[in-house]
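Run Peroxisomal hydratase-dehydrogenase-epimerase through structure prediction, thanks.
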Amino acid sequence: MAPSELRYDGQTVVVTGAGGGLGREYAIFFGSRGANVVVNDLGSSFKGEGAGSAAADKVVNEIRSAGGKAVANYDSVENGEAIIKTAIDNFGRVDVLINNAGILRDVSFKNMKQADWDLIYKVHVKGAYKCARAAWPYFRKQKYGRLISTASAAGLFGSFGQTNYSAAKLALVGFTETLAKEGLKYNILCNVIAPIAASRMTETVMPPDVLEKLKPEWIVPLVAVLTHKSSTETGSIYEAGGGHMAKLRWERSKGALFKPDDSFTPGAIAAKWKDVVDFSNPDHPDGPADALGLLEAAANLSPSPK
Ligand code: NAD
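Sure, done. The structure for Peroxisomal hydratase-dehydrogenase-epimerase is below.
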């Protein structure tokens, strides 16, 4: 189904950090497609300083002026219960949660202060956890839920000056992959996106001509598809930015097998190193159990010649 046809009538969508940037685009989209929207935003700076109600109020007004239904919530995502309570108190349900709120504290690892590490962890990891934790019982009870968490290329690949942010963003990948497994039988689908878009977060690090090609509204179609009731996709990682969209997955090299006995020495590994790093015939594992067959195959190798 084309995104232009997707609707969310009667559903309640909670978007964290929806007072600006990507979150604002999601909120306006859902508000225009029949959903009740909770527009959460703490109203802080992109470094996490200060707070205020103006950002969330402005988006709520935009949605209402266009005929949509929305309420504001000004809590930090660290207070996930209060955000989900706003959804329940106003609309009686929660169907979709988009963990989008975020800040940056970029600094080289050498110069990073404890506060830079702690605040990034609190907003991105603890915040996503607290919101998901509060929505989860409703999702389970109604046997329906759609959860998006927001990772980043910085977390997937590393990025200079962003150890705190990278660690937090990749944590959300593991968080989402596990929730996808736990939620599956309740029709709770959980995915993670790594967007790239013009916002106050990126305007200081990217030139205007590049930003012009990365409109935040171009991330909306992916989020729309993944959160729609017709979706079956779960536990996946997507990259999106400009007009590009792709799915990412883990890849395991062909690898080498070693009899786990006293022949399994550093020298034995060195001799087979080219197999360890050979990606010409890879696997794409999606669970810890996928490695068990390999462990068994190694154990069953014939004894190494002495
Ligand atoms: P943004 O700064 O425009 O929006 C983030 C919003 O989150 C802001 O309105 C801010 O007030 C709000 N917020 C911050 N801390 C909060 C808290 N504790 N509780 C509630 N709200 C809070 O940035 P954006 O670019 O739209 O980023 C949205 C998400 O996408 C973030 O998680 C970010 O890390 C991620 N991301 C963005 C890009 C990009 O290229 N823009 C790239 C990778 C990841």
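The pocket of nicotinamide-adenine-dinucleotide is lined by residues 16-17, 19-23, 40-44, 46, 48, 55, 76-77, 100-103, 123, 127, 150, 152, 195-197, 199-202 (CB under 6 Å).
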